[in-house]
Amino acid sequence: MTPDISERAFEAAIECALLRHGPDACPGDVAAVRESPPTFGDDPAPGGYHRRRADDYDRALCLIPTDVVDFLLATQPRQWEKLEQHHGADVKPRFLTRLSREIARRGALDVLRNGVKDSGCKFRLAYRKDDRHVTHAALKTVAAFLNTEGGDLLIGVADDRTVLGIDHDRLESDDEFMRHLAQAVRNGLGDRAGTCVDPKTQIVEGKTVCLVSCQRSPEPVYLLWKGQEKAAEGDLYVRSGPGTVGLDAGMPASTSRHDSVPPQRPVEREQSPVLSPARPGRRPRPAI
Fold this sequence. Notes:
Helix content: 25-40%
Strand content: 5-15%
Largest sheet: 4 strands, antiparallel
Number of helices: 8
Oligomer: single chain
Number of domains: 3
């Protein structure tokens, strides 16, 4: 059987290779084009792209509107809810128009790096892989402190007290890091939780670290994270000894308000090399 070596067949083979392992994968085995999995990290196999039709693309906006809105709803639901309260039923077309104008004025790269503001709400349009991991770990620890007796979190110091600095997160300035952290707290934990969090930067061994002081919240704090939460209202975390423990979705929120939390089945435990939870109620002493 003579193989089809036309340009259209070549384009179809490339498309099928990109769609492999995703919801729109081509039927059957695609043997014509293969790429070896990466030999490092825990990335999934190559592929995973979604198929889009030509009419999904809005030529006037130079965007695929459904992809933009779905991304914002999955990653920043609270900010989108605030914007929806401001714009009402017109929130989608008004935001997409704003985004399109910002891209035309500032360029796509600047918008991806720095996000876009609309009516007092700031949205990020991209997340780095390491940034997502670090932010999630930080928010879990902050939520746990807010749900128990408060405490301090050092960002930029490893568990073995090695000072890494917040420049490890590859943000351009300390101010940008602080804005990113404040935005992440509002998006993941809510505006009221943000009033119980006081982040400050300080220099340790010539590097900038961030000390996040958390006061006990007067109400339970739930973490919403990119649609991955196990309950509709979000995930509930508390401090148990030196670690952060996630409570079962069915656990009453009032349980977290007691000083003594009964043993629960941990949902997830996580530590990040750039996060160092300090003892509750005590300010950590910088290494000299």
